[in-house]
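Q: Start with the shorter request: fold the first protein.
A: Done. Sequence, then structure:
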Amino acid sequence: MGIQALEQRLERMVDGVFRRSRNSIRPIELGRRLIREMDDHRTVDVKGQRVVPNDFAILLSAGDHAGFADIEDALRTELVEAVREYAREEGYHFMGPVNVELRVDNELKPGRFGISSQMRQAEAGRRPGTIVMPSGERIELSDARNVIGRLADCRIVISDGNTSRHHAEIHRSGSGFVINDLGSTNGTFVNGERLTVDRRLTDGDIVTVGTVSLRFEAS
């Protein structure tokens, strides 16, 4: 996905939210600037990976900030997802979880905004993990058992008749996460391959249980 396609995606995602706001700054403008911020501040780590900022502050005038008050949580969620999507497509890596905050800068005039960013490291030796549901809902993985299945006691509940009651489990192993099948009827698949042994998950892996596909994100 190039920058043009990503901007079209951002238009669809955030403009639905924007219609509930009367702000002079359109969310697509914020998304474009976040993307530019990543491109402008990318660097290469010791492993040869292109690393970009993951912690962003959007600076707004008091009036513009107030204009986003009713939709701030939804807007931040959409912008974080846009940042993640662009990073995946460009092969960028983050040092920790992605965070976007809206802050007031009393020196800014209405209609103007700024961006500050930094590379913020996750807790030493412990990369965060998230499962992204088909609906877009994000479920943060705990260090304990993260069971996937139909029953309500599962951390990741799947309403699908082809999914077993306790279908699979994701648990922390070292700095990352490992998935294993729990003897499910129809099996667990990672990127189309059926699990026969425990498997370490990597950023962007697609986990399929029954007919439902979930995306794993490592940061």
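Q: Next, the second protein, separately.
A: Sequence, then structure:
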Amino acid sequence: MDLEIRNLTHRYDALEVLRDINLTIASGQIVCVVGPSGCGKSTLLRMIGGLEQPSEGVVNQIGSPPEGSLNPLTYIFQDFALLPWRTVSGNISLVLEGHGLTKAEVAERISDVLERTRLTEFSGVFPKQLSGGMKQRVAIARALSVNPAVLLMDEPLSALDSQTRELLMDDLVSLWEREPFTACYITHNLAEAVRLGHLVVVLSRRPGEIRETVAIDIPLGERSVDHPDLARIQRKLWDMMRDEALSADRQLANA
């Protein structure tokens, strides 16, 4: 299933946050959205997920969700959103409730995503016993358990230290290589964007408009930390954003 965003504009009263966004998120692609603070990245994601209605424009779902999809659009947040009184398996099973699945079907889905995210041995552990990186793995496993058409990822690694962030990026690449998924990935971290994105969308400062889209055709599995082409693309993105990031900070300070 593809997502087609057409002529999307959003305002909060007189404040225009996004302006005339046109973007296609193709099946099997990770599209990373970057831009200065306050440019409307998270607002865009909320409208894609149906949590907010745009002032103008539409978000169309083109095609059908994958077979067995329980929730076509599924969020992964930066704060993990795990229930502390439920085990790892219990947190995953939460999103499978109310869908008419048998106990065997629920167990099969949980077992599958635990294996894919290398969490099988932690199935009975509670969140307080896990590191931040492990908690985010649980959140990823929970999202994958509903077999979504599109993952909506709102700065999922921003709460983690740099070493853990690198490990989680490796995990996401491994998951995608094993079974390609579709994602809209919001981040302020350009290193994440060039490591994970098939397409990087650069928004201007508020009101956010698409300034440029940068396609990266290097296979995900070949994108090492010190890949020279990735470093070049990252510098290009930063050169494009530097002045607007400074202006955005001043704009927010004076708001």
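Q: Describe the second briefly.
A: The first strand starts at residue 2 and ends at 12. The mean pLDDT is 91.
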